[in-house]
């Protein structure tokens, strides 16, 4: 059973249990007795439980199987500049700008923050859940130049791209010729840069500890929702879903 199917079944069971509670079907007992039995793969399912769960499982499966877009080729993540991370970072900047009504300088997504690749062919709602299975929110950080420098210091040794910027990584892993929005970046300049990022990475996840002291501005949009909405909009416009490594990092 794939990770997605397991998650879908668990969600269906949770929905069923919730519905039962609301109907009053689940009542507390005065005393708990140890009636636990060992579970085996051969143990048959309880027909009564299956009858309750089945409609929810079907509903979840129908939702997850909905085709929302088409990719001519798989959008993958790889060491260095990643097509999938470029895809995610660009969507983050675009959606954060729309939600907050202002331009966003940078978008940050690490390969570790993306749990699966987008397949070639039909992209379903389930594909997006596989890509982003967590309830991560899109937030915006307002970072001083010193923190932005730390971001590129982190990115350069692994040739990680940053949406909205280009730079050169030296052989010893130092960032040079950093350009943000085509403007040269000066770490000594007294300026604040806006960064669209997940709340997980903003809190220091994936070794981005230098972001932790910065208070996030909330968009109240899940990353998963931002990705799904973007794919749906492309489909509405008759466009395929594509992304590529396009030389944001030079070395």
SSE layout and pairing:
Elements: H1 3-23, H2 47-64, E1 67-71, H3 83-100, E2 106-107, E3 121-124, H4 125-131, E4 137-144, H5 145-155, E5 165-169, E6 175-180, E7 183-184, E8 192-198, H6 199-202, E9 217-222, H7 223-236, E10 249-250
Parallel strand pairs: 2-8, 5-10
Antiparallel strand pairs: 1-3, 4-8, 4-9, 5-6, 6-7
Helix pairs in contact: 1-2, 3-7
Keywords: Signal
Protein name: 5'-Nucleotidase C-terminal domain-containing protein
GO molecular function, one term: hydrolase activity
Question: How much beta, percentage-wise?
Answer: 15-25%
Total helical elements: 7
Q: Which strand order does the major sheet show? A: 2-8-4-9
In the CATH hierarchy, the architecture of the largest domain is: Alpha-Beta Complex
Mean pLDDT score, rounded? 85
- Could you tell me how far the N terminus lies from the C terminus, measured between alpha carbons in angstroms? 42 Å
Please supply descriptive tags for the structure shown above:
251 residues; alpha+beta; 5'-nucleotidase,  domain 2; four-stranded mixed sheet; disordered N terminus; 5'-Nucleotidase C-terminal domain-containing protein; 5'-Nucleotdase_C; signal
Structure, described:
- With 251 residues, this protein is α+β, with helices and mostly antiparallel strands.
- It contains seven helices and ten strands.
- The longest helix is centred in the first third of the chain and has 21 residues.
- It folds into two domains: 49 residues, no CATH class; 183 residues, 5'-Nucleotidase, C-terminal domain (5'-nucleotidase,  domain 2, Alpha-Beta Complex).
